[in-house]
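Hey, I was hoping to borrow your eyes for a little while. There's a protein on my desk that I can't quite get my head around. The fold is given in discrete form, as structure tokens running alongside the sequence. I'd be grateful if you could look everything over and explain what you see. Here's the protein in full, and shout if anything looks odd to you:
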Amino acid sequence: IAAAVDIWGRGPAALPPPRQPRTPALPVEGERNVLITSALPYVNNVPHLGNIIGCVLSADTFARYCRLRNWNTLFVCGTDEYGTATETRALEEGLSPQELCDRYHAVHADIYAWFHISFDHFGRTTTPQQSRIAQDIFQRLLARGFLLQDTLEQLRCESCRRYLADRFVEGTCPFCGYAEARGDQCDKCGKLINAVELKNPQCKLCRGTPVVTPTQHLFLDLPKLEGRLEAWLERTWAAGDWTANARHITRTWLRDGLKPRCITRDLTWGTPVPLDGFHDKVFYVWFDAPIGYLSITANYTDQWERWWKNPQQ
């Protein structure tokens, strides 16, 4: 505060010269380097003012502040494009998932440009870099024994010849009896649902009756990581950077014990799984999408690891 008062008193002449932007922006030894991301907006709709405020505006404000401080700043974002919501919307609009993503990515980019959101790079998750980095992380997990194989029972529509992702199933909620519950959640009582628990399930595509069929999937072995995660959390919480709400939610997960988490889906729209016996599957979007921050940076610069694997700077 004293330094700010001193500079204010001496006027604009006391300010350091503005940083000359470099392309691409890369970490610089001896300087403060700041990488900023904001939540990747989902591609299957037109963003409105609430999305702007809740998703990108705070990050944009902080990026502008960092640049005014002459800190070396990189601000990246992009559209999140895989997942069943994209497939559902594409079917509704009579487009392929790729055509839908191309259309709405352009819409998003135009709207953020109109609002002057100061991204250094606005990318997307459907890129070769996304597949390469996601598959590399998968192979590293596999080599280190952090993946499991197990059988899941899923609904399969024989008429459509496909396993049905959660959003492609509708039926009666087993908890409250609501007749239009989805395969992942009931909008009336709010409870989470496993699609095979639905009563009178229907395929959303053809209105046929799906059957329960076993299928093999890959799981992230979170119980194996639980001890290391707890130790890391204790150190991080001691630094005081977590909100009370974030601590509470995380402690609840750990209190109940971590469970293996499925990372594959019986879909075609997504990053392919590079493993024999699983080539007809893709990565579940919640495994794949967070890697989008890395791949979007990698599409901005081939030296992306200097931002993501460089804690010293």
In short: The mean pLDDT is 92.
